[in-house]
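Example record

One chain of 266 residues, shown exactly as stored in the release files.
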Amino acid sequence: MINRLPSALLLIWLFAVIAGRVFGLHGNNIDLEFILAKPSLHHWFGADDLGRDILARILCGVEISFTVAVFVTLITMTVGVFIGLLAGFYGGKVDRILMQITDIFLAFPGILLAIAFAAVLGPGMINLMIALCITGWVSYARLTRGQTLSLRNRQHVQAAESLGASVTHILLKHILPLMGSILIVEATYSLASIMIAEASLSFLGLGIQAPNASWGAMLRDGVRYMLVAPHYVLIVGLSLMSLVLAINLLGDQLRDKLDVRTSFDK
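Predicted structure tokens for this chain:
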């Protein structure tokens, strides 16, 4: 039952988003008669401080949050893997220089760097993605570098070098495929952390801007009405928690399935 929980939660979110599109739910429709309305048949999750349907805005917010997370993950993975492959394969000065740059970024908490870059670049979806990309490649670089160092002296890699294969061919055909499972698991965890980071920046006013829906911005607006409309913050917070939890649990399951040692033990 527990093993099916992540997939079930993700399927529920997927069907909810599709249903929202099919039934034409609009998160920006203002209805002043339902300001801070409690959950009812008309508004299943209640309404916000402008009378907008919370359910509709949550569904719009998950689309935006997931879009940001996917694009940032793809970009940071590409950059980090490229740097890690170069550092691990060439070693020497190349490795030292690239790892020193990586260590500089690691010296600061990622979320603080993202806040700093977002503040400099200004609010907005594109600037938010740029800020998260600037700080998100470090974990991929270090992970890829360590894996490349361990695979660099494998016999099949040395054989390819002796046969005159190019560096690009060796990296893409003989080294990168062997770390694919590890990178997939890391990308899964990265999706969840980026969604949290996006919500955090939007909560501070540095992320997604109105009228677009963002879970972080919704939490920020709902905090002011905790005493009169606690359902606003609770529903949005539980929604964010359920999606992030599902992605993290899915990452744990992928790690267990792709781990050779775990497979043999079973």
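Notes: Residues 2-22+50-260 form a domain with the MetI-like fold fold (CATH 1.10.3720.10).
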